[in-house]
Amino acid sequence: MSRRGAFIVVEGLDRSGKTTQTNLLCEHLSKIGDRPVKLIKFPDRTTPIGQMIDNYLRSKSELDDHAIHLLFSANRWEMRSSLLQLLNEGITVICDRYAFSGVAFTFAKSLVASAPESTRKLTYEWCRTPDAGLPAPDLILFLDISAEVAKLRGGYGDERYEKAELQQRVREVYKRIQDDMQTSGVHWISINASHEMEVVKQEICSYVKDLSNGVNEPIKSLWLT
Ligand code: DGP
């Protein structure tokens, strides 16, 4: 396998069906491609940094919004070398959330009226900076649903960010990231995730065929100009 593996990121709002669809995508690529497929997920709650994030998400600890943002980013940086190794070994990597979640969730917090003053001063650029230089995906699939559809799916769970107002802001920030990524030539596809599971799966599958047998180009770096 001389071609490196493709790096495909799946992003989305909570309740968008991301977990189901990343599993289905993995199965599909294993069937149609000529190489192994590996599913990874951020945050990776198994490392010491990941455990701090997990405690924070389950409201077992409190952290400054800047500090938790940097921890989420550190959790991605600590996986960088193993991610590169997988890709260079020719393995296709599907990644459930990546740096785009970092910007979407942290910057969204700064847009909430009741946020502390220091959080309201967070800028979009500041949110992007810690992840600049990480491996850039070959394709980003964004699963989009409205707050209304999320509610119909049983509403949000108990974790810290699973609140309707914040999710609405997260969706707005994802749209901004989408515009930025598309102007910078990165392949970002927005998918209407409110359709039936099978319809969403078919749409996703239609975008990955070209990546199933690896990629010839070198791995790029995220957000470095
Ligand atoms: P999940 O395990 O996919 O349900 O993600 C856990 C929660 O953490 C979810 O509400 C999204 C949020 N999240 C994921 N990555 C980041 C990040 O890098 N920064 C922030 N602030 N939140 C994140």
Can you characterise this structure?
It comes from Clathrus columnatus. Its EC number is 2.7.4.9. GO terms for molecular function: ATP binding; dTMP kinase activity; nucleoside diphosphate kinase activity. This protein is an alpha/beta fold and 225 residues long. The protein has a single domain (7-210), classed as Rossmann fold, CATH 3.40.50.300. The protein is 47% helix and 12% strand. The protein has 10 helices and 5 strands, in the order βαβαααβαααβααβα. It has helices at 18-32, 48-57, 65-77, 80-88, 99-110, 117-120, 124-128, 147-152, 164-183, 197-208; strands spanning 7-12, 37-41, 92-96, 139-144, 188-192. Helix 1 (18-32) packs across helix 10 and helix 2 runs antiparallel to helix 3. It starts with 6 loop residues before the first strand and ends in a 17-residue tail after the last helix. The structure holds 2'-deoxyguanosine-5'-monophosphate (DGP). 2'-deoxyguanosine-5'-monophosphate (DGP) binds next to helix 3 and helix 5.
CATH architecture: 3-Layer(aba) Sandwich
Q: How many strand units?
A: 5
Order of helices and strands: EHEHHHEHHHEHHEH
Structural class: alpha/beta
Shape, per Cα inertia axes: globular
From the 3D structure, determine the CATH topology: Rossmann fold
Distance between the termini: 30 Å
CATH homologous superfamily assignment:
P-loop containing nucleotide triphosphate hydrolases
Q: Helix count?
A: 10
Bound heterogens, unique: 2'-deoxyguanosine-5'-monophosphate
